[in-house]
Amino acid sequence: MGAIRRFAFALAILVILAYADVIVLEHIYKPISTTYAIPWESFSAGLSWAPEALWWHVAFVPLSAGFFLLTGLAARDLRFSVGGFVLFLTGWEDTFYYMLLRQFPPSRLPWLDNAWGIAWTRVFQPSQSVSRWGLFAANAVGLALAYWIFSRGRHNPASRARTRH
Questions:
Q1: Which residues of 99-120 are buried (b: 16+ CB within 10 A; e: fewer)?
Q2: Ramachandran assignment for 91, one of left (phi > 0), alpha (psi -120 to 50 degrees), beta (any other)
Q3: pLDDT single digits (tens) 73-112
Q4: Residue 31, CA atoms < 13 Å, CB-side half-sphere
Q5: CB contact at 8 A, 30 and 105
Q6: Which of 27, 29, 112, 148 could hold 130 in an S-S bridge, CB 3.0 to 4.6 Å?
């Protein structure tokens, strides 16, 4: 599988994950919270190191990792698993989430403050939450890292010549 095909497949998986996130947060959590006057904090996982994390996030991250691992194993391509998960960790799923909602990400994204693939952008804005521009910077770094991962490996021109016929 070439780098472009890995990117296309990984981005398709990220869109599917973002769609699942939209369904759970926008069509289940928020309506339940509004209809039954349940405070948003009651959905919190109560993690001291990630106070903004909901129970959905606690399940979502391992499910996403498993999704990339299983698809990489099915394709016999662990580079796909690693590169795809790097794209996930650097906020591409969050970017697609807002694209599916047809919204620009909010100026501040405090729920991403503990997402290590994105939180590093706070060095450019100390004592503040992750910003939308921080998310986009993390996306750019993730894209570069994924490209590097996806394009690594043996390139055997002889095997390529055999598959062309």
A1: eeeeeebeeebebbbbbebbee
A2: left
A3: 999 999 999 999 999 999 999 999 999 999 999 999 988 9
A4: 6
A5: no
A6: 112
